[in-house]
Amino acid sequence: MAWLISKYLITAAVVVIVSEAAKRSDRLGGLIAALPLVTVLALIWLHVEHQPQSKIANHAWYTFWYVVPTLPMFLAFPMLLPRLGFWPTLLACVMITVVCFWLFTLLVRRFGIELL
User: Fold this and answer.
1) What separation in angstroms does the CA of 26 have from each of 17, 23, 30, 56?
2) Cystine design at 46: which of 12, 34, 51, 67 (Cβ 3.0–4.6 Å)?
3) 3-state helix, strand, coil in the chain (%, to 5)
4) Which residues are listed as membrane-spanning (predicted)?
């Protein structure tokens, strides 16, 4: 149980660090948020918990493919925010991400990559 609580606290600290850095500097907050800190932590947790290398490698592989269709959201958000406000923009970006993910899944399936 202590291990699980430690994982929660360390992972939550990453989110707090990103939000605190973003309050002070847009660029620094964006840079830290763009770093694959959560993924690196997940890889570390999997390794420490003695998961097979194939599972750890698959986690990194699928993380790459799942990140790609989320990128348009980061372009749409700043364009929509002044027009729609925060919550409608957030909802629109979630919908954009879902559509991009679905289309991307269809595209990469042609190359033998199954995401769903």
Assistant:
1) 13, 7, 6, 32
2) 51
3) 85, 0, 15
4) 31-48, 60-80, 86-108
- Going from the C-alpha of 106 to that of each of 42, 65, 75, the distances in angstroms are 27, 12, 22
**Mind listing the pLDDT tens digit of every residue in the chain (116 residues)?**
888 898 889 889 988 999 999 999 999 989 988 889 889 999 999 999 999 999 999 999 999 999 999 999 999 999 999 999 999 999 999 999 999 999 999 999 999 999 98
**pTM > 0.85:** no
Spatial separation of the C-alpha atoms in residues 68 and 26, rounded to whole Å: 22
In the chain, what is the straight-line distance between the N-terminal and C-terminal CA atoms, in Å? 32
CB atoms within 10 A of CB 105: 16
Closest CA to 17 of 3, 35, 2: 35
